[in-house]
Input
Amino acid sequence: MSHEFFNPVRSVYGAGALSSLPKLLAGRKAVIVTFPEARQFGLVDRLQRLLGAQMAGVIDQVLPNPDVAELQALYEQFWRDGGQAEVLVAVGGGSSIDTAKALMVGTESGRFEDLVAALVAGKPFTPARVKPLIAVPTTAGTGSEVTPWATVWDRKAQRKYSLHLPETWPGIAIVDPELMLSLPASVTLQSGLDALSHALESIWNVNANAVSDTFAVAAVHEIFDALPRLMAKLDDVELRGRMALAALKAGMAFSNTRTALAHSISYEMTLRYGLPHGIACSFPLPMVLQRAMGHDVQRDAVLAQALGPLDRAPQRLAAFIEQFGVKTRFADYGVSSEQADRMVAHALTGARGRNFIGAAQSEAA
Output
């Protein structure tokens, strides 16, 4: 059986890598897409000093888990007034990068509702206009800087949509661990567990291949070693760098496989129970691992490379997550066993759930 691995993103990595942004822009004018606190953190001023006249504007109204109601005004104003912008530069966590991916693809009308309609209908969408994207993550977790996917939420309808087009790959990722030094413990942990989920989800995945496995196993090993150390020493730039590289590797892995059952579960836990994404997708990992084992000899072998002997792997994985105070049972989040069973069954029918290697057997049962 032949496999294919594809990732078109140029990745620039290392402490101080942000300083390469003017050269990478190559004279083009950029609009910065970032989070509201970026100004008080001095990040916007730093970018202004770095870019000078290359900085054509700033969009700093990005909120966590971007919602269609919030995105509409940003999108339509950008395509109405953003003519000077030749490049979008997303600086922030997954929400900033997801927002920029939504902004980068323009509809013929300039109306956001036309893009949403295509997402709701699941129809192919060919953007009439596209702005290139440079992604500069300030968290080590989402991997969004090297994937084409963006999550768009509709809280009113209690739904989430995945935007993924050939045009929504970032052109360049700048991964600078110095930008992550000010992250609080809570965001550091949630981001790190999100990266762990990405790596494991790409292993117990029907789309896995030898190259994605290589990135995923390396990411799991690095996270297991570096994340506990980082949580004890948040101002250590070397540890920040190790986690940033682990998140990048996990992103490279799932850029080709997509995520699977744990992420499918996480969307409902975020929408209905308010769990932050990194917790929502990581707390069920031991349960999903238990379900994954025994379905495929090759997948079991890769899981053993990542986690050690599988006879005790679910317990070791649970212990790793729980050392940070994160519970790993549905009941800990107010979800009854009956509700959990329904949630898992529903998650298996979703696009991400069907990527899980045990999905077909679970449906047959």
Summary: The longest helix spans residues 210-232. Strands lie at 10-13, 30-34, 55-59, 87-92, 105-106, 129-130, 133-137, 149-154, 159-164, 172-175. The CA atoms of residues 43 and 167 lie 28 Å apart.
